[in-house]
Amino acid sequence: MEIYGYIRVSTCDQNTARQFAALQQMDISRKNLYVDKQSGKDFERPAYKKLVRKLQEGDLLYIKSIDRLGRSYEEIQEQWRILTKEKKVDIVVLDMSLLDTRNGKDLLGTFISDVVLQILSFVAQNERENIHTRQAEGIAEAKANGVKFGRPEMPLPDNFDEVRKAWRDKKLTLQQAANACEMPKSTFFSKAKRWEEHYEINQSSGQ
């Protein structure tokens, strides 16, 4: 029997130290610790896939909490089934003692484990959806307060209006106009269109 541990954080800048510390207490060899720094929305994660390929019948897998396994209700249920039924691996969730497949393998124990798993996987997905909602609300509020996201827009070159007019008068091709302004064709076209729309708005408002 081999003992493995799985660690996941959502982004590269998040700290894995707490999960490492918890799993190292289980005497897991460092080579058997698999780490993903990726969202838990699905199981398309390189380290997790390697881990599943490595697991053999009778092996033991530790995770810190069910949301470290994933945050999709249906996919957590499916992966749990694959690991425990198809691969015949035992799983221990350190933060929830009832989720220890080594214990309670009778009908009642299995029933309790299944119910707890369903509740916790539901909570994990619900929290993920709440995070997305809070992020969307925060971005909307920031935009309403004038905060701009993404790269700052580069100022137009001094010759932009002159080149734009020459292009509109068909004295220059789109490619020639873009080259003259040192920008891709699509960028020149979109900026020209935006400039003209802005000009028309100002003209109609009398500015």
Please give a structural write-up.
The structure is a single chain. With about 210 residues, the protein is α/β, with parallel strands linked by helices. It folds into two domains: about 5-140, Resolvase, N-terminal catalytic domain (Rossmann fold); about 160-205, no CATH class. It has helices at about 15-25, 45-55, 65-70, 75-85, 105-145, 160-170, 175-180, 185-205; strands at about 5-10, 35, 60-65, 90-95. A four-stranded parallel β-sheet has the order 2-1-3-4, with helices on both faces. Helix 1 links the parallel strand 1 and strand 2. The longest helix has about 40 residues, at about 105-145. It is elongated, with a radius of gyration of 28 Å. The chain starts with a strand and ends with a helix. The model has no long low-confidence stretch (mean pLDDT about 80).
Q: Topology of this protein?
A:
Blueprint lengths: L2 E7 L7 H8 L8 E5 L8 H9 L5 E4 L2 H4 L3 H14 L3 E4 L13 H38 L15 H9 L5 H7 L4 H20 L3
Parallel strand pairs: 1-2, 1-3, 3-4
